[in-house]
Amino acid sequence: MWTFLLVSFLELASGQDWCYQTQVSCSNTCLGPDQWGRSFPQCNGRSQSPVNIVTRKVLPDQRLAPFHFLGYRHAFHGNLSNNGHTVQLDLPGGIQIKGGNLSTTYTALQLHFHWGKDGGPGSEHTIDGELYPMEMHIVHIKEGYESLSQAASDPEGLAVLGIFFQESNSANKKLEPLLKALSRIPRPSNKTIVHGISLQMFLPPHDHLRDYYRYHGSLTTPDCAQSVVWTVLENTVPLSRQQLSAFSQLRFSDGRPMANTFRSVQPLNARRVYRSGGSMAASPTPAVVLSSVLLLYYYL
Q: What is the pTM assigned to this prediction?
């Protein structure tokens, strides 16, 4: 994910910018994903993101209750920018999440996207090896911290909400204001204002927000700080092929089309992935059923 405020100083110090794999072949000055660890050591850590979520291995956790989304319905005017790596929408104050077994309240700072090429596969996380066309990250910092870099020093300083976008036969009219604004930020450092949007517009329907995966990981771009409580929603948001392709009209700093802006999945190592809905009772085993029948017969 894009962490501009956090990495700008580090890039200056290292003398080399980082980039995605599609840019490496045409550049001798940027570090591709397999080289990020040279200038950003945490990128070689054992708790990196994204990961492949294998559904048959996830563990149900009854503590993963529904979230409380505070301020997500409020309309606002947001600054939208092409920062050379992705599209970023800066968020106003007062938008927060709590619940979902988070240790405290977290405040939203920004959201950004990762996508493929012309609507092709482009998500960062995968589900049973499947890539979605696009993934959005809403970045939150723990209440009490004043910046992303400050929060990144806390092992649970960041809470990121990951949302998949899936191709649909019809356009998603809710997101048209943002999609139309993309034409105004074709090159790095281009900025514009998007009017009358809310974070709720970017989410699946409310009754689909209860189903999600949880694990501890990292930022998915340098400096890859391992400070993220990840929540990846199970349900997707629809966009038409044309809407998904609109992101590919943007340009990297080298002038090439901004496409395939995702990091490949990282080893899970000793980590576990959990799923909400753990309160549902498991089906009894045959031995338990037989014991219950015998016990009932005894008392009769």
A: 0.88
